[in-house]
Design goal:
By secondary structure, this protein is mostly beta strands. It is built from no helices and eleven strands.
């Protein structure tokens, strides 16, 4: 199994940038397809983006495409979510997750970190 620990989020002004990290232990993160999700107050958790374990290809939700970028540092066993051009609607608790290769489900989750974008 893998354990995931996310970096602290923060408060940022609209138009600003923030980078979240997701550090893995117990197993290399390159083994997994890694996803980022977020949950805003009163809303359901939504998909933000993913990086596939094979080839490192990425995919993003339409709401963040062109603004957010997922990357991975295998030496540090860490996955990143770079968030640029932030808007207040990006305010949420952000989670990283690892997809179980047998079930295809995101089975391993970080603790979540709060990102608040002020207008």
């Amino acid at each position: 199994q893998v354990q995931l620990v996310e970096s602290e989020g923060g408060l940022v002004q609209a138009g600003g940038s923030l980078r979240l990290s997701c550090a893995g232990s117990g197993r290399t993160l390159s083994y997994y397809t890694m996803g980022w999700f977020r949950q805003a107050p009163g809303k359901e958790r939504e998909f933000v983006g993913m990086m596939r374990w094979f080839g490192g290809m990425t995919d993003y939700s339409d709401s963040v495409k062109g603004r957010f970028t997922i990357s991975r540092d295998n030496a540090k066993n860490t996955v990143y979510l770079q968030m640029n051009s932030l808007i207040p609607e990006d305010t949420a608790v952000y989670y990283c997750a690892a997809q179980d290769r047998d079930t295809g489900k995101y089975a391993y989750w970080g603790q979540g970190t709060q990102v608040t974008v002020s207008s």
